[in-house]
């Protein structure tokens, strides 16, 4: 038994069924290059006793330490991430309306849910003796990596597209990370970063090209379960989808809770994407097993500008296993939702998080979500780095930012 009590046993490839030893740093499946996902020996845990022990633990995501990959408590690199609030949204125009929840990750360290994945991935890399890490990023993941690397005393390099907003670039530098600005879209930046780093010995933290960021994202599902209770779980969770780690992570959480005997019915997961870049929603509607890259992607929500997510088979599997679906929203509706969330509900949402509020209308209108169902919207980041008037001006002049994948 390790100090944390982690039940991690192996890293598994769902594409070729390979099993990989988790005892050393590893990226993708060495056989076939697909994403690896962590497996735990859940039979060793008494689900009910574990559930009962949770309220006495720290209010961070490390309270779920048995289901996280880190073995030594001293390797944990924490800024107090996790256990974000779930807020009730009451509409002024329909005060008696059905129950609507919003889980707000805007207050996490570095201002977004990326803290969850980076806290866990950096901790595990640190435990395994990695000294230098890199990530290609549209912004939030880079800032989060920079903060956790600083906290652990590790070296971080963040590769950003040249046109990334300055506050993101400055944020990474403020934490002491090396920022490499490259021309082109995130797709080209990611490829160039991996080529440059191929012989550097630095560890690649690109989305789903290493197995532990998704374990950090899994805590979104674990928290929703703990905070609302098995009986209080919403019928549907609406989630802003880019690289898809959140959907894969939440579905994994519900499957693990089910294996522990703590859950019978889990929420349906709905992927919301912008009309200008909706490869996951299109693949869901087409019944495809993987996405076809989106041509000419554009949206003002930077985290959703992912035209060809790396592990799309796993994303589609997760949504389908939950019996959920997808919806697209316009950029105009996203900015309108940012305003409404702020003015009517006091919630500062990122464009990505606000997209869920916009998507709910169309999901209800087409009957995917029933009017009497409880719904949880996931706000993945704070809106404070964004200026709503500037976003509106960019809409008026239809200046959208073309970009590409992870
Ligand atoms: C604020 C925000 N929301 C959502 C996403 C998309 O997340 P996921 O990879 O879980 O689909 C991102 C990714 O960059 C993001 O920064
Ligand atoms: Zn494989």
Give a quick set of tags describing it.
single chain; 406 residues; alpha/beta; Rossmann fold; 3 domains; six-stranded mixed beta sheet; four-stranded parallel beta sheet; 12 helices; 13 strands; disordered C terminus; binds pyridoxal-5'-phosphate; binds zinc ion
Can you put this structure into words, describing what you see?
- The radius of gyration is 20 Å and the shape is globular.
- 53% of the residues are buried.
- The chain is built from twelve helices and 13 strands.
- The chain has three domains: 68 residues; 211 residues, Rossmann fold (3-Layer(aba) Sandwich), CATH 3.40.50; 91 residues, Rossmann fold (3-Layer(aba) Sandwich), CATH 3.40.50.
- It has a six-stranded mixed beta sheet, with helices on both faces. Strands 8-7-6-9 form a four-stranded parallel beta sheet, with helices on both faces.
- With 406 residues, it is α/β, with parallel strands linked by helices.
- The protein starts with 7 loop residues before the first strand and ends in a 10-residue tail after the last helix.
- Helix 6 crosses helix 7 and helix 10 crosses helix 11.
- The longest helix is centred in the middle third of the chain and has 20 residues.
- Helices cover 36% and strands 15% of the residues.
């Amino acid at each position: 038994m390790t100090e944390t009590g982690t039940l991690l046993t192996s890293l598994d490839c769902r594409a070729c069924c390979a099993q990989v030893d988790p005892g050393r740093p590893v990226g993708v499946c060495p056989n076939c290059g697909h994403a690896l996902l962590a497996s735990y020996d859940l039979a060793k845990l008494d689900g009910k006793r574990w559930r009962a022990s949770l309220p006495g633990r720290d209010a961070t995501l490390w309270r779920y330490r048995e289901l996280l990959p880190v073995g030594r408590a001293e390797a944990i690199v924490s800024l107090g991430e996790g256990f974000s609030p779930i807020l009730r949204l009451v509409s002024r125009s329909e005060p008696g309306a059905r129950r609507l929840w919003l889980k707000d990750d805007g207050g996490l360290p570095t201002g977004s849910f990326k803290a969850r994945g980076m806290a866990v991935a950096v901790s595990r890399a640190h435990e395994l003796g990695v000294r230098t890490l890199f990530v290609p990023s549209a912004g939030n993941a880079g800032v989060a990596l920079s903060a956790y690397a600083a906290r652990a005393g590790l070296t971080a390099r963040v590769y950003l597209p040249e046109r990334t907003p300055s506050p993101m670039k400055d944020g990474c530098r403020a934490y002491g990370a090396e920022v490499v600005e490259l021309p082109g879209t995130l797709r080209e930046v990611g490829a160039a970063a991996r080529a440059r780093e191929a012989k550097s010995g630095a560890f690649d933290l690109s989305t789903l090209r290493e197995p532990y960021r998704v374990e950090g994202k899994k805590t979104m599902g674990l928290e929703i379960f703990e905070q609302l209770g098995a009986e209080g779980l919403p019928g549907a969770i609406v989630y802003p989808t880019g690289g898809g780690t959140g959907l894969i992570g939440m579905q994994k959480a519900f499957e693990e809770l089910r294996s522990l005997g703590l859950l019978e019915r889990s929420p349906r997961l709905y992927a919301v994407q912008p009309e200008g870049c909706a490869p996951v929603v299109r693949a869901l509607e087409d019944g495809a097993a993987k996405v076809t890259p989106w041509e000419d992607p554009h949206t003002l929500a930077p985290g959703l500008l992912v035209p060809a997510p790396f592990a799309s088979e796993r994303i589609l599997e997760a949504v389908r296993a939950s019996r959920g679906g997808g919806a697209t929203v316009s950029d105009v509706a996203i900015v309108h939702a940012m305003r409404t969330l702020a003015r009517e509900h006091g919630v500062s949402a990122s464009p990505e998080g606000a997209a869920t509020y916009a998507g709910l209308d169309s999901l209800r209108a087409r009957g995917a979500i029933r009017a009497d169902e409880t719904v949880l919207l996931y706000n993945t980041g704070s809106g404070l780095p964004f200026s709503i008037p500037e976003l509106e001006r960019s809409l008026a002049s239809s200046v959208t930012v073309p970009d590409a994948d992870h």
